[in-house]
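INTERNAL AUDIT FORM
Audit reference: QA-55
Scope: verify that the stored structure record matches its stored sequence.
Auditor: D.O.
Record contents follow.
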Amino acid sequence: YSEDLKGLGFGATIGLLYQLSDAISFGLTYKTPQKIKVKGDAGMSGYPITTSEAEREVTWPMWLGAGIALKPMDGLTITFDAQWTNWKQMDLIGITFDEAMWNVPVPGVGQTIAEMSEFQLLWKDAVQIRFGLEYYITEKIALRAGYYYDPSPAPDTTLNILLPEITYNILTIGLGYKTENMSLNIGFEYFKGKEAEADMSLGHAMPGLHNNDIMVPVVGFTYKF
């Protein structure tokens, strides 16, 4: 079985910053849910009708963050924030097929291809915890480091490799350089995944040992005219 689906979604991000003093500031961020429809072709080898047009609808959840930044001395900024994601609303990702034969029970199975192809996620809401440091060693050069904990919203009963949501511990480092008109920022993130195991008895899970380590380099350049 295979799918080749594409779609486009739109959302908005709203932020609020309140500076209590030169040394303390607070921030809030809200991201709206994003409803995305993906359409394309699905294929089933060995079935009497091997292809069908298909559509899934996914709502990427609401996200809310709050944080504080402290400046205990010149050049040093310390940050802490928590970010809550409404993953619980991603309970089930269904699919519809244009081909009528794909919407009737498969002989000997008792389920339609649509029922067998849906993702039952049963995710729960989760909160990320983040810490960060920035220190300007000169007026132009900044060193940065951080850590954040990203808990998995997925129970072991629905783990799958198509939506690989596992728990991560993430370390970050960075270097920034700025002048009056230009800034260059280089960073690196290392995601250390926590192993999770699912077996055949756990509902809709793909059986096996699930884990993932990710390394992400980042480069940003800004020029002001």
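Auditor finding: record pair retrieved intact. The chain has a mean pLDDT of 91.
Action required: none
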